[in-house]
Amino acid sequence: MSVLYLLIGSLCAFALAYRYYAAFIAARVLLLDDRNIAPSVLCNDGQNYVPTNKWVVFGHHFAAIAGAGPLIGPVLAAQYGWGPGFFWILLGSIFAGCVHDMIILFASYRHEGQSLSVIAEKDVSRITGAVTAVVILFIILVALAGLGVAVVNALFNNPWGVFSIAMTIPIAMVIGLYMFRIRPGAILSGSIAGVTLVCAAVFFGPHIADSSLAGWFTFDKKQMSILLPIYGFCAAAIPVWLLLAPRDYLSTFMKIGVVAALAVGLLFVNPTIKMPLVTDFVHGGGPIIPGPWWPYVFITIACGAISGFHALIGSGTTPKMIERETEIPVIGYGAMLTEAFVAMMALFAAVTLVPADYFAINTSSAVFSKLNMQVVDLPYLNQLVGLDVAHRPGGAISLAVGMAHIFSSISEGLRHTMKYWFQFIIMFEALFILTTIDAGTRVARYILQDVLGYAYKPLSRKDWMPGVIATSAIVSLAWGYLLYTGDVSSIWPMFGATNQTLSAVALAIGTTIILRIGRKKAYALITFVPCILITITTLAAGYMNIQTYLAKSQMLNVWLSMAVIALVVIIIADNIRVWLKLLRTDKPIGMNDDRDQIYCPIVPADAPPDARP
Length: 613
Prior knowledge:
mainly alpha, about 70% helix, globular
């Protein structure tokens, strides 16, 4: 079957969803109103709360949420065939993921940019707020380690890729200084300069790799596992405008550009889908993901359809940058739809590979030898990309090979540039992941500061540098330990289960919020229905993961999984208690009526109104 039928059909569905469903939620459910002053304006501190152009915020938000999940999850889920992944990405993103992101971004905006745990405390109970904070810390540490695995497997012993990625850091900092300090608001000129420099970093990569400087950019897996947390610490401690915002914005050009180019390439090449609708592994026993398609397709695809990690960004950095409330649909719902499109492209790139080549890339040599498969195009692909891509599990390499193969198939001239396409896509993937590590480590730092602030008040201040440095170090060390001691087979299933568990928590809190503010209680069904589906699915996946970890004596993973499940059950039960109470009320109680004034986090709660920034 031609991939074009799936490509055009999914694009039409996404367009209709944004035009009608997102507009319905904005106008009827949330009652968005620009008269509500943005936290970025109200609490402007020049470091975390910064009013920012809508498209720069979209770029940051999309780059931060679109980490490894939409690229790697669908590639790994292709083990089950093209059908399960395609339909979950299409329906899950429209009716669950986009709604999840939009509701949480709205809630944080109305709560002065506060974190999900603070929202839970104010709208549900103190118990739910405290438990949510603990759950989020567990989940974000596992998520960052899971994302880091993909970077390590893509960049170890790859000086070209490491050089290109490393150069994006000083480039972003220079562009950040230019757009925010030297010429504030110079979006167009900064964008052109930044994108040009990033592309130049890829072009000069092979010259560095073939020179005496290659040793400076060549690292093994263990070294990469140490360097990534160090980078995360630095990115979380410096001001948001210096690295986070400009690099996320610049990388968004690359991300959307590459995905759009892939869509155009699919139109020109019109490849056939070589993976069947479902494979023999649909009931379990697969070489990449050991469990059956349900619940593992749902947790493996992760960010491509719905992701709890998005709730951390939507209640972390993004609401502190938005200038107007009516920008929430394009940033919340629109960015998630764009990510779903990325996930579709990743799935298409994987299922157009010969199945034997796909499994050879995504499994170890020992596992592949037991499948009794013979590679077809892989030796030729190795020659074209200039790298042995076999047995590099994690999804990143097979995605890069699949995309580069599609691009090179457009013409004979492009075929001889396939190694450039391959490295460009490796950088494209790594930028996806590193921007998520940037924002994820920073959000985890925010949450840890909130929690430790109960014990020592200055630690909760986001502008107190000793607290910023200490909490950034603790967070980076924690997820760095998981990265250093784990691998894709142990980290990714736990990441997927815990990540989707957080989305169930966020949907439960979102249901509570809609019951508080909605003109009709029935509007809460838009979050309640996906909440029930995701809760059942992730609890089943968590139980299966625990059985797998016990069989392998991975006791740390067992205790982490059990703790998350127990805490999530507490949160869901507490939300149900509040739902039953709210269903007995006749009018909104909360953010769309005479709500209590919520003071800016950087101003004491007892300060007079004229003391606000």
